[in-house]
Design brief:
- Keywords: ATP-binding, Ligase, Nucleotide-binding.
- This protein is an alpha/beta fold and about 450 residues long.
- The chain has 15 helices and 23 strands.
- The protein has three domains: about 100 residues, Rossmann fold (3-Layer(aba) Sandwich), CATH 3.40.50.980; about 220 residues, Rossmann fold (3-Layer(aba) Sandwich), CATH 3.40.50.12780; about 100 residues, ANL, C-terminal domain (GMP Synthetase, Chain A, domain 3, 2-Layer Sandwich).
- Helix content is about 30%, strand content about 25%.
- The strands form seven sheets. The chain has a seven-stranded mixed beta sheet, with helices on both faces. A four-stranded antiparallel beta sheet has the order 15-16-17-18, with no helix packed on it. A three-stranded parallel beta sheet has the order 1-2-5, covered by helices on one side.
- Helix 5 crosses helix 7.
- The chain starts with a strand and ends with a helix.
- The structure holds adenosine monophosphate and 2,3-dihydroxy-benzoic acid.
Amino acid sequence: MLQLPNIPEFLPVVFGMWRAGVLPVFALPAHRHSELRHFAAHSEAAAIITVGEHERHDHAATARAVAAEVDSVRQVLVVGSDEFDALAATAPRELADPDPEGVAFLQLSGGSTGLPKLIPRTHDDYLYSVRESARICGLRPDSVYLATLPVSHNYPLSSPGVLGALHAGAATVMAPRPDADTAFRLIEAERVTITGVVPPLAAAWTQAAARTDRDLSSLEVLLVGGAKCGRELAERIGPALGCKLQQVFGMAEGLVCYTRLDDPEEIVLGTQGRPISPDDEIRVVDPETGADVAPGETGALLTRGPYTIRGYYRADEHNATAFTPDGFYRTGDLVRRAPGGQLEVVGRAKEQINRGGEKVAAEEVENHLMAHQGVLDAAVVAVPDPYLGERTCAYVVPAAGASPTGPELRKFVRERGVAAFKVPDLVEVVEEFPVTGVGKTSKRELRAALAALARKQ
Ligand code: AMP
Ligand code: DBH
């Protein structure tokens, strides 16, 4: 299992593992003890490769704590340690070629149920996605790609990402942080031509561009994805940053869609693009009946194709519902398809909050809250947010005699060792769920009713 921020060593480590037939599990720098323990246990990781202190967190200490709890983990290797340097200095040795059809690594899913799922991607399926992404994003040997988001994530790894840049023979610049000051400094200094961000960052950069002294003229393409880029933001990006907008709608499970660099403005501003491959099969279905909706109508997106998984790693039960019997992945996204095949993401059917591109599974956070002695029940829903698009709001019913407070519960969740983006932004402690007629409704219906209520407030 790998937990590395945007540092150059990421690439030699990952390629070394691929060459040796060792599967990386791509944890994010934001993940903490509880997520790392789950990934390590579920994948039966043999080692954890991490860094020491980074952004005020001691990753090495967390990794050692996880290693002490998970039997399979025999080693913690810290980039920059003597042990790491000694390994890096080992003489090269001949290795058998990896099987192109074999699993190359386990990517993480944002998840919608209790714990995040692991996604097995093969060398050839991923290379196909990377190669076509590099082509569709116009990467050339003289391109300079800025990795703005954490490179372990599927988007900056492969859409077109650092791997797309390598494939095209382009240069990669690793941004330690995604803020406008850091990114603009690097764009100017390294003559960056292309990068990818999430909508809240695109909005922040667009504002910052109006008052920067930095020369951003090298920037040709800004990819925006991970969450819906609204029309108004989409319109501001080109004029503010002096580059082309390219929308990307992707998922670590496979399917990636891009607006094309030569698409008409209406498509670029108003859709999330069309699939990479002519062999990507797209179905837009009625979420209730499963029947295909009429062309142009909204429905749930199902997909099957050459680089989309047919099942999560060791998750038979979940796979039975996450995929159709004939192998289509149920993305949980609600989309509308334009006549040219472009998809517009209009909503979501999955129990997930998209916090500016960071995915939060409602059930995972509810489980953390319900571990608190003073909590009888919890329901986590999305509330609209002008900056992030959505934030998390936890409705909490106290146990008899208990009176937990919002700050106390937020602290409790944080101290259970979860990524900061999963700590509920808002906590509403309520005597009972403030939804009439809740009675015997499922958690799913309850969440929907609470989300509707939160939107009105
Ligand atoms: P994951 O499965 O965790 O890799 O997250 C992929 C999900 O992110 C998709 O299924 C969508 O819900 C969301 N997503 C990614 N890109 C976009 C986009 N451009 N617009 C709207 N949602 C997006
Ligand atoms: O959100 C995502 O997971 C995502 C967004 C854009 C992704 O996996 C991708 C492109 O490849």
